[in-house]
Amino acid sequence: MGELGEPAAEVRKPGRTADRRLAGRRVLVIGAGTRPDDDPEAPVGNGRAISVLAAREGGSVACADVVAEAATATAALVAAEGARGVALVSDATDAHASAAMVEEAVRELGGLDGVVVNVGVGLGAGLAGSSPEDWDRVLALNLRAPFLAAKYGLPAMADGGAFVFIGSTAGLRAATNSPAYDSSKAGLYGLTRHVAKEGGARGIRANLVVPGLIDTPMGRQASARRASRTAAFTRIPLGRQGTAWEVAEAVTFLLSDRASYITGQSLVVDGGLDAV
Q1: N or C terminus: which one in the chain shows less Cβ crowding within 10 Å?
Q2: Which residues are tagged catalytic?
């Protein structure tokens, strides 16, 4: 096993600076922590994997999370890769806090070339078991926070930059028992397209990464609560769950110039589950 629990075969350490996909890029990752888990062998979460891989690819990373300890731990891992890592603590659902978070990222990194929004929560059990308060809380984090990140991030971003929103295959179909979660993740498609439209004049791209069943602490906790999620593992054509590192690879590609003519699109990372 490699660092942070990733399979060694999945760790790609770029060599020369010119080989690094994000060399010189300044990236803000919102939701950069990993959900706490009592299992010492728990895998890394998507936000932390994205931050670390961005650092390995030559980027400076502002690691934002609502939990200070989570942001600090990820920033330390970024620094351990030889990159600049900054910990930011912010409530991404609050407009003033979101604006301040972007300003601080720009100040600490000297500018902004990329924003990744990796936030999400699911509450409620069907329509009957979902309260209006559940709906509002889920939409606030899953859709309002990405909107605020785009609202304040777009004016601050350098020309030629990129947004990457992290969605879910729940946005493709009624995949969970939470109407708020499914609806919010479907809404990210519309937000992504709109940001791509507004950013296009400045060469700023916006894309959506759509993970399926990914082995993260949050994923394991969801499986423990919902037997249907575990049953779905057998229907994955590639025969396994994905890893946070595989999600991070998709994100890093979309942040980089290798995706320079891709915008307003979604990239599904689900091992073929929704294709069949």
Answers
A1: C
A2: 181
pTM of the predicted structure, to 2 decimals: 0.89
Three-class SS state of 252: helix
Give me the domains of the chain, ranges plus CATH numbers.
22-275 (3.40.50.720)
The parts of the chain modelled with pLDDT lower than 70 are: 1-18, 219, 221-231
Q: Distance between alpha carbon 160 and the CA centroid of its chain, in Å? A: 20
E strand map for the chain: 26-30, 60-65, 85-89, 114-117, 162-166, 205-211, 214-215, 242-243, 266-269
Neighbouring CB atoms inside 10 A of 217's CB total 19
CA dihedral 24, 69, 245, 262 (to 10 degrees): -50
CA distances from 156 to 109, 145, 182, 187, 212 (A): 12, 17, 30, 24, 31
Q: How much is the pLDDT for 10?
A: 44
Q: Pull the structure tokens for residue 216.
A: 């993260």
Closest of 186, 160, 142, 216 to residue 24, by C-alpha: 160
Which amino acid is residue 226, in one-letter code?
A: R
Expressed in angstroms, the distance from the first to the final Cα of the chain is 31
> Tokens for 104?
């601080």
Angstrom distance (rounded) from CA 226 to CA 204: 39
CB atoms within 10 A of CB 66: 19
Cβ contact 125:119 at 8 Å: no
pLDDT tens figures, 257-276: 999 999 999 999 999 998 88
